[in-house]
Design brief:
This protein has two domains: 210 residues, 3-Layer(aba) Sandwich (Rossmann fold), CATH 3.40.50.2300; 103 residues, 3-Layer(aba) Sandwich (Rossmann fold), CATH 3.40.50.2300. Helix 1 runs parallel beside helix 10 and helix 2 runs parallel beside helix 3. It has a five-stranded parallel beta sheet, with helices on both faces. The protein is α/β, with parallel strands linked by helices. It contains twelve helices and 14 strands. Strand 8, helix 7 and strand 9 form a beta-alpha-beta unit.
Length: 382
C-alpha cells in the first residue's frame, strides 16, 4: 500500500548539485532530469515516510567554486542529503563544504578513481576495480596491444587512473610510452598527437575532458591513428559524449561502464523509455554522465530511509551501508557493507556509427575499496 503524503509535515529535502551550465551542461541537464524523474516517482507513489519529497536543485556551472557555493546553499536550506558532482575536483569541493563543515550525508554518483573513504560519503558509480582492472587485461588479450599512451587532464582522477593502468599494463609485459597532463581548459593538442604518433603507441588511454576533449579527438583522428590500427579508449565515454562529436572521430572507441542504452534487460529498457518520454532532447540517460549512478544513489538512499523509519542521519547511514535495489540501470545493485561503494554489473562497449555496441558483459563486480573507518564520525559527533 502506498504511503500517504502528509501536508502537515515538513517535506523531506533532497539536494542535488548538477552542472546545468558550462562545458558539462549536457551532463548536468541529464542529471537534473534524473533527479526530477525519481523524486516525482516517489511522490506519485505516496512520498517517503508519509511525507512529500522536495527536490532542491543547484547549478554548479561546471565550476568547483560554484559547486562549493551550491553545497553551502543546500546546507542553508537544511536538506536531508546531498547528491551530485562529476569531476573528482568537484566532489572534493562539495565534500569540503557539505561533509567536512556541514557534517551532511553526501552521495557521489559518478564513475571515478576510487579511494574515497569517509563515514558520510557513499559512491554509487563504478571505480577502478570495476573498470580498469577487468578492461585493460581484456583489451590486451583481445588485441595484442602492449604500447599505451596516456593523454590526461591534470587532476586527481586521471593521475590515479593512470597509476592503476600503468601497474596493470607493465605487469602484463606492456609499456607506457607516453604520459602527459594538461589544464582542464587546454585545447591545443597538436604536439601531443605528434608525440603519440612518434611513440608507436597502439592504445591511447584518454582522460582528457571537455572542453579539451573535442579538439583532442579531432587532432587524433586527423593523424590517422585509428586508420593505422590504433585503439582509442575512454572509459567514461557514453551516449551523451557520442552525441557531442562527429561519429567518425570516435569510431571504434572502447568504453567500460555500468550501463549502456544497448543493455537489453527489461527494466533498463523500460527506464530508458520512461526517461525519453519525459525528457526528449539531447540530454540522454547515460552512465558516464552519472545518470545511472544518480538513479542508483537516490533509490538506495530511499531504501535506507524506509528501513531506518526516520531521517536520523546515523540510522540512515547504517541502513545505507547494506542497502540494495533489485532493479536499476544495467541491473541490480548493492552497497558492499563497510566500503560505502556499490557492487554492480559492468559492460565493455565499442562505438560504431555513432552508437555503442556491447562487446562483453562482465557481470556483477565488487568495488574492492577499503573499509571505512566509522570511528571518525563517532568522534566528530561527540
Amino acid at each position: 500500500m502506498a504511503e500517504r503524503t502528509s501536508s502537515n509535515s515538513r517535506p523531506i529535502k533532497v539536494g542535488v548539485i548538477a552542472d546545468q551550465t558550462g562545458p558539462l551542461e549536457f551532463v548536468g541537464l541529464a542529471n537534473a532530469n534524473v533527479a526530477r524523474m525519481v523524486i516525482g516517482d516517489i511522490n506519485a507513489k505516496g512520498g517517503l515516510l508519509g511525507r512529500e519529497v522536495k527536490l532542491c536543485l543547484e547549478d554548479s556551472e561546471t565550476s568547483d567554486a560554484a559547486a562549493a557555493a551550491s553545497a553551502a546553499r543546500l546546507l542553508d536550506q537544511d536538506v536531508d542529503v546531498i547528491l551530485g558532482g562529476i569531476y573528482s575536483s568537484t566532489r572534493q569541493a562539495i565534500k569540503a563544504v557539505a561533509v567536512q563543515q556541514g557534517r551532511k550525508l553526501y552521495i557521489y554518483p559518478e564513475q571515478y578513481e576510487g579511494e574515497e573513504s569517509d563515514p558520510l560519503i557513499f559512491c554509487t558509480g563504478p571505480g577502478p576495480a570495476q573498470q580498469v582492472d577487468p578492461f585493460i587485461p581484456w583489451l590486451m588479450q583481445e588485441t595484442g596491444a602492449k604500447k599505451f599512451y596516456l593523454p590526461s587532464a591534470d587532476y586527481i582522477w586521471p593521475r590515479t587512473m593512470n597509476r592503476k593502468v600503468r601497474d596493470i599494463v607493465t605487469a602484463r609485459g606492456g609499456e607506457i610510452v607516453g604520459e602527459e597532463y594538461f589544464p582542464l581548459d587546454h585545447t591545443d593538442y597538436r604536439r601531443t598527437v605528434e608525440n603519440i604518433v612518434a611513440s608507436g603507441a597502439e592504445v591511447v588511454f584518454n582522460t582528457t575532458v571537455p572542453p579539451g576533449l573535442g579538439p583532442f579527438l579531432e587532432e587524433l583522428h586527423a593523424s590517422g591513428f585509428g586508420k593505422r590500427g590504433g585503439r582509442l579508449v575512454c572509459l567514461y565515454f557514453d551516449e551523451n559524449f557520442l552525441n557531442m562529436v562527429p561519429a567518425d572521430l570516435v569510431e571504434g572507441l572502447y568504453s567500460c561502464l555500468d550501463y549502456y542504452q544497448a543493455v537489453s534487460e527489461p527494466f533498463s529498457r523500460n527506464l530508458l523509455q520512461q526517461y525519453d518520454e519525459l525528457y526528449p532532447g539531447n540530454a540522454k540517460f547515460t552512465a558516464g554522465s552519472a545518470c545511472s549512478g544518480l538513479y542508483r544513489g537516490l533509490r538506495l538512499w530511499e531504501s535506507a530511509v524506509r528501513e531506518a523509519g526516520s531521517l536520523d542521519q546515523s540510522a540512515v547511514i547504517a541502513a545505507l551501508d547494506h542497502a540494495s535495489i533489485a532493479q536499476g540501470p544495467g541491473g541490480p545493485a548493492a552497497m558492499v557493507p563497510g566500503q560505502h561503494h556499490v557492487r554492480m554489473n559492468m559492460y565493455i562497449a565499442k562505438a560504431k556509427a555513432g552508437q555503442f555496441n556491447i562487446v562483453k558483459s562482465l557481470g556483477p563486480i565488487d568495488p574492492n575499496e577499503r573499509v571505512v573507518d566509522m570511528s571518525q564520525e563517532m568522534a566528530a559527533a561527540v
